[in-house]
Write a structure and sequence with these properties.
Elements lengths: L1 H17 L16 E8 L8 E5 L9 E11 L2 E6 L2 E4 L5 E9 L3 E8 L13 E8 L1 H8 L8 H7 L8 E4 L1
Parallel strand pairs: 1-9
Antiparallel strand pairs: 1-8, 2-7, 3-4, 3-8, 5-6, 6-7
């Protein structure tokens, strides 16, 4: 009986010893970074159906989150960017026009929609500037709990440590 008990104790010690794991895990994903592509001289006209495809310089992961911003102004405090979709209304509350976007792994599409697009000012249709912010899924999921205001480009830029010097500029 002593031999069986001793054997069971020995097997138990081996089993418990093998359950110990001393792995060092790196919680930082150092090769996954957010990036920004800037597209200037984008024209949204009847000739292109008020749509423009913004081809990415490289394929992104299908799990990445993509935010599209439009440059709406600027001044001494810096550029002002608005997150799409962006909608403008007449004084009576009816739809005037707006901008929308969608994306794939290869590109983003920006669109102009509204009531009277041919009559819309060229300032709203021609020479538009868009920034596409690609956020890897790991970071997107992590920040969802932090309730980051994605409408605020500067908050997104600060949170994801987007370097203005590393913006990839793409001419249209």
């Amino acid at each position: 009986m002593k031999k069986i008990t001793l054997l069971l104790v020995f097997i138990g010690m081996i089993t418990l010893q093998s359950c110990t794991v001393n792995e060092v895990r790196d919680e930082n994903d150092n090769d996954t970074i957010s990036e920004v592509f800037e597209y200037s001289n984008v024209d949204l006209t009847s000739g292109n159906g008020y749509n423009q495809i913004l081809d990415f310089p490289h394929i992104i992961y299908s799990s990445d989150m993509v935010l599209v911003y439009r440059l709406v102004g600027g001044g001494s405090a810096g550029d002002v960017w608005k997150l799409l979709p962006e909608t403008y209304y007449f004084d009576d509350g009816t739809l005037d026009f707006g901008y929308d976007s969608n994306f794939t792994q290869y590109d983003a599409q920006v669109s102009l929609f509204g009531f009277d697009l041919p009559g819309l000012s060229n300032a709203n249709k021609l020479d538009q500037v868009f920034r596409v912010v690609v956020i890897p899924a790991y970071f997107a999921n992590k920040s969802a709990a932090g309730k980051l205001d994605f409408k605020d480009y500067n908050a997104v830029k600060e949170h994801y440590k987007l370097d203005a010097a590393k913006v990839t500029k793409v001419e249209m």
